[in-house]
């Protein structure tokens, strides 16, 4: 797929008829979509239980945000964080980082014209609670219950595979936690995650 994508991009860079250029762009979009599906299916396949180690959730989140800091699609998005000092949690760091990254990218996609991404973290009794909130267009009430279903996407076939939130749900559930969504049409969206502290 990488070879096909590279070849198509080289052909796009060359002069051609408008129809040919348009067709090549469409081909490249579908190649990228196939690549996303393959990557996400690989993520699903790797959801077996791996060794978990005491880890700073603050550290994982900071690393996640560093991955998107120079993403041009975040230039119009203000990221605000309120990260309280919380105890280390016994988790699979790679899987939890995948959850954080999926939620951050979801927020980005929900605000193509810019907006605010708020992230909070605090201890609530015997759990760590994290909230990812955006100021995007929100989600219709009739589809909220489908958000965590595999292959369900509101982004359209060119942009979404419908596996990102399903993977998040599986990872958090496997860690004994919960992930919920609070959203209203034209009122933004909040994803609330809880991960239990070990006794």
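Q: What amino acid sequence fits the structure above?
A:
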């Amino acid at each position: 797929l990488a070879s096909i994508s590279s070849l198509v991009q080289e052909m796009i860079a060359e002069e051609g008829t408008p129809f040919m250029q348009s067709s090549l762009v469409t081909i490249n979009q579908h190649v990228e979509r196939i690549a996303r599906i393959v990557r996400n299916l690989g993520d699903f396949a790797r959801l077996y239980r791996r060794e978990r180690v005491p880890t700073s959730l603050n550290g994982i989140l900071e690393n996640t945000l560093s991955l998107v800091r120079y993403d041009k699609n975040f230039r119009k998005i203000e990221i605000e964080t309120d990260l309280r000092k919380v105890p280390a949690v016994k988790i699979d760091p790679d899987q939890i980082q995948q959850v954080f990254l999926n939620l951050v990218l979801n927020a980005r996609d929900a605000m193509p014209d810019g907006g605010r991404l708020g992230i909070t973290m605090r201890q609530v009794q015997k759990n760590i609670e994290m909230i990812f909130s955006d100021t995007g267009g929100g989600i219709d009430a009739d589809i909220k219950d489908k958000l965590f279903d595999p292959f369900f996407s509101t982004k359209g076939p060119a942009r979404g595979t419908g596996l990102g939130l399903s993977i998040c749900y599986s990872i958090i559930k496997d860690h004994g936690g919960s992930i919920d969504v609070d959203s209203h049409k034209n009122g933004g969206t909040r994803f609330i995650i809880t991960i239990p502290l070990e006794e």
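Q: And what stands out in the fold?
A: The beta strands are 53-55, 77-83, 89-91, 115-124, 127-134, 178-183, 189-196.
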